[in-house]
From TrEMBL:
Bound cofactor: record note: Binds 1 Mg(2+) or Mn(2+) ion per subunit.
Binding site for Mg(2+): 224, 248, 252
Keyword match Manganese: yes
Residues engaged in binding substrate: 97, 107, 135, 224
EC number: 1.1.1.85
Keywords, alphabetical: Amino-acid biosynthesis, Branched-chain amino acid biosynthesis, Cytoplasm, Leucine biosynthesis, Magnesium, Manganese, Metal-binding, NAD, Oxidoreductase
The protein, known as: 3-isopropylmalate dehydrogenase
Organism: Rhodohalobacter sulfatireducens
Similarity comment: family membership: Belongs to the isocitrate and isopropylmalate dehydrogenases family. LeuB type 1 subfamily.
Length: 363
């Protein structure tokens, strides 16, 4: 029997609730594919701070680097909001992404037909939407130096730096073009080149990469317009490639096309490493209630099968189980709106139904 070893970092808030479901699903499909799944679990973020006095330890980072494949829940919460910048749970996540070198964050936005009535947007606008946001993840204003706070004439000020190099832009652009080749063959690069120096370099660098991909159509859009166009006519987009901060904001916005942020998975890739996490956060407002939507985490596990384990059939089966659950009318609280034929389901019920349908389809 083949063995696969991954690290699980459930994190804070609803992180452990949704990661638990994703791990059960992973375990089930791996067993069905004659693979033994070894999971090394570690605290991360706020829970790690509570145990070790820092949001991630060197040992945990090393374990992640050794295993190369990490499934993460979410980090953060009000309990840790007053900590200094480097002790915050979010600092651990940024450090992990940087150390793993996972510069390309793939965030698919796929509108399930069963959910076209669950969005706050009109059905005819969102139906058939299938977008991939490729967010640059280890550069930009999240990491640029200098970064500091000081005071000038009694007036406190703070500095963040948005920096991009040509090589940083071009490697993520290549991922966008490569994935576009396998989809709708269109890339829209989103920037703010009418104002930002780093965006002018971004656009020039993407244009250079585009020359290597004559079969992929490239367009450019300013980020403020892109935010509007995503809501006006999302179907115009295939692959969107953009910087770290713009990608963060646009993907939360785009999540509402699917009905809820609880639906959006992500894969962060770089070299041989893969970090898989839902796009949503630790949702402190619903943590501990057993009602979190685990589907983003489960769909992230499908991406882990696809990109790291190279088990495309397992990925497809997980995605089919999600589809069936929704087609059968089961809705987590964040998607439930009393529509006829639908049933409200908590995290555990969703988990049980996914496992049952995976077991049934294996027969
Ligand atoms: P959030 O994504 O945690 O929550 C936003 C809203 O969406 C909340 O109302 C929440 O209940 C709801 N929601 C999110 N995921 C859900 C799910 N799976 N099922 C049902 N409802 C869900 O964003 P926030 O409130 O801005 O941030 C809370 C904390 O999470 C902050 O500390 C933030 O830094 C952190 N955060 C972490 C990550 C991450 O670990 N990758 C991502 C985003 C935010
Ligand atoms: C995300 C989150 C993170 C980010 C935070 C928690 C650091 O919002 O994964 O989208 O901004 O990248
Ligand atoms: Mn975010």
């Amino acid at each position: 029997m083949k063995e696969v070893s991954i690290v699980a970092l459930p994190g804070d808030g609803i992180g452990p609730e949704v990661t638990d479901v994703a791990l059960q699903v992973l375990d089930t499909v791996c067993e069905q594919h004659d693979i033994k799944l070894n999971v090394t679990k570690r605290p991360f973020g706020g829970t790690c701070y509570d145990e070790f006095g820092e949001p991630v330890t060197d040992e945990i980072l090393e374990t992640c680097k050794e295993h190369k494949v990490v499934l993460l829940g979410a980090v953060g919460g009000p309990k840790w909001d007053d900590l200094s910048a480097n002790l915050r749970p979010e600092a651990a996540l940024l450090k992990l992404r940087k150390e793993l070198g996972v510069y390309a964050n793939l965030r698919p936005i796929f509108v399930h037909s069963a959910l076209s009535g669950s969005s706050t947007l009109k059905e005819e606008v969102i139906e058939g939407t299938d977008i991939l946001i490729v967010r640059e993840l280890t550069g930009g204003v999240y990491f640029g130096k200098p970064r500091f706070s000081a005071e000038e004439d009694g007036d406190p000020f703070s500095v963040d730096t948005m920096k991009y190099s040509r090589s940083e832009v071009q490697r993520v652009a290549r991922i966008a073009f490569e994935t576009a080749k396998l989809r709708g063959k269109r890339v829209c690069s989103v920037d703010k080149m009418n104002v930002l120096e780093s965006s002018r370099l971004w656009r020039k660098s993407v244009l250079e990469v585009a020359e290597e991909y004559p079969d992929v159509e490239l367009s450019h859009m300013l980020v403020d317009n892109a935010a509007m166009q995503l809501i006006r006519n999302p179907k115009q987009f295939d692959v969107i490639v953009t910087g770290n901060l713009f990608g963060d904001i646009l993907s939360d916005e785009a999540s509402m096309l699917t009905g809820s942020i609880g639906m959006l998975p992500s894969a962060s890739l770089g070299g041989e490493n893969g970090l898989y996490e839902p796009v949503h956060g630790s949702a402190p407002d619903i943590a501990g209630q057993g009602i979190a939507n685990p589907l983003a985490a489960v769909a992230s596990a499908a991406l882990l099968c696809r990109h790291s384990l190279k088990l495309e059939s397992a990925a497809k089966r997980i995605e089919a189980a999600i589809l069936k659950l929704l087609d059968d009318g089961y809705r987590p609280a964040d998607l439930y709106n009393d529509e006829p034929g639908t049933t409200l389901a908590n995290t555990e019920e969703i988990s049980n139904r996914l496992i049952t349908s995976l077991e049934e389809t294996a027969k």
